[in-house]
Amino acid sequence: MRVPEVRLVGPNGEQVGIVRVEDALRLAAENDLDLVEVAPMARPPVAKLMDYGKFKFEAAQKERDARRNQSNVSTKEMKLRLKIDNHDYETKKGHVVRFLKAGDKVKITIMFRGREQSRPELGMELLKRLAEDVAEFGYVESAPKQDGRNMLMVLGPTKKKTEARAEHAADRDRRMAERQHALDEERRLEAELRAQAAQAAAAKKKRGPADNMDPDIDL
């Protein structure tokens, strides 16, 4: 450092005050720490006593964790017809719910045909109905708008993709545990039945033929 003094911060964030650089370097050496300039534009510059190697390692670890947890939200698309029947509507609504639960956005497109273009209010009603039906899993991120012969609306997921993945993993682990428990119970019952059958066979063999004869018969 080419400045005569710095505002020194201790290793635990405590404010030491303004000290000469020589004194700051001496304190760093005495505590086996590094003197790191953290705010060079301040007057005087701010420096901190720290383990620089540990600091760099922790910073790199945080960056890796941030990249790992970064959610890459994709946008799915669902197309509807204005005159959609109830069965088809329920099917497509199920797909929308599945996308939202997975943490993805969904772009809903209503395609108008011929004279349907003169009834945009019907498209608005259909999109409003869908938004209300999936409100538990998503919200209207982009309100319905006309785009030529189409009307568009974007739904965003109420849960982040990382949360959705965590819930999916937890649900998968729960199902696996339940299946394993059922399998273990089935094996236990089979083992009990085999043991009972073996005991019955052993008891029958031990009695022998004479045990099965009528005791009133005079041999």
Automatic annotation (TrEMBL):
Under Pfam families, the record lists:
IF3_C, IF3_N
Q: Which GO terms describe its molecular function?
A: ribosome binding; translation initiation factor activity
Q: Where is this region: Disordered?
A: 158-219
Q: Which SUPFAM superfamilies match?
A: Translation initiation factor IF3, C-terminal domain (SSF55200), Translation initiation factor IF3, N-terminal domain (SSF54364)
Q: Is Protein biosynthesis one of the keywords?
A: yes
Give all residue intervals belonging to the Translation initiation factor 3 N-terminal domain. 2-66
Q: Where is the composition biased (Basic and acidic residues)?
A: 160-193
Give an example GO cellular component term for this record: cytosol
InterPro entries tied to this protein: T_IF-3_C_sf, T_IF-3_N_sf, Translation_initiation_fac3_CS, Translation_initiation_fac_3, Translation_initiation_fac_3_C, Translation_initiation_fac_3_N
Q: Where is the Translation initiation factor 3 C-terminal domain?
A: 74-157
Q: Where is this chain's protein located in or outside the cell?
A: Cytoplasm
Q: Which UniProt keywords apply?
A: Cytoplasm, Initiation factor, Protein biosynthesis
What is the documented function of this protein? IF-3 binds to the 30S ribosomal subunit and shifts the equilibrium between 70S ribosomes and their 50S and 30S subunits in favor of the free subunits, thus enhancing the availability of 30S subunits on which protein synthesis initiation begins.
Known partners and oligomeric status: Monomer.
Member of which family?
Belongs to the IF-3 family.
Q: What is this protein called?
A: Translation initiation factor IF-3
Source organism (scientific name) = Tessaracoccus lapidicaptus
Q: Which gene encodes it?
A: infC
